[in-house]
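One example copied in:
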Amino acid sequence: MSGVSQADIARHEVTAASQAVAQAEQGLRNARAGRVQPNLTRQDIAQLRGAVLAAEGTLAVARASLADHVIRAPIAGGIADKQVEVGNVVSPGLRLYRLVSDDFVNFKALVPEEKLRFVSVGDAVQVKVDALPDRVYEGRVLEILPAADERSRSFTVKVGIANPGGRLKQGMFARGSIVVQRDKRTLSVPVNALTRRDDRNWVVKLEGTRAVPTEVVLGSTVAGMVEIVEGNLSAQDTIVVDGAAEITSEQQVEVRANNDPRTNGNGSANGEAAPAATD
């Protein structure tokens, strides 16, 4: 039938089946009231009741067939991408449309692996969008994907953001800040005291006049000072601030004065050295 879709046929079948049910029910009511034929037997009434049940069964099948021809969106929103047209033959698993929610959007952020320990599902996130600089959006961490990007060694964190008014659009560039609680006793060192070797972070601390490279795990960075969350380092240790990359393990060094006010340090080794500081 040209110009008629399978869904149209299914709708017609539902309409016809609904009418058949109504007619069967009316016939049963008339028979019980004696308006069709007096002195009907119980068997006659049972046959009419069976006709009603049969019509209801046909209607149920027609409705199920119609449901198979109707695609319902799982969320309210707009169609961002359409892969099929009316009349196309589709198979299970084929993507038909990509929907975009107007009220709620997802922001995908990349978190370096050394910072991932500070992020948890449910954390509050403040998001700024370049195209909408007049406000800061509030979101929550919804999911932390379990695998890191092989090149950047960063993890993808999905953040959900309420979008009243629908101003946020898919594809906009955004930046997010996750606020985590910081321990006031956290150890911090100057950023230029760090060295990177074998994909790990190191500082060089001094034991007397001997240089000892020490592996550390980093936290957040504020005003040129980086947080040390793990490592064999204490606030009493003296570390090399400048020139640490040129110092080898067990090298003998000479300590001289340092004037960095952030560390209150008083020593140097092939440059400058200072005590680690606590916030």
Summary: The chain has three domains: 6-68, 100-177, 187-278. Residues 187-278 form a domain with the conserved putative lor/sdh protein from methanococcus maripaludis s2 fold fold (CATH 2.40.420.20).
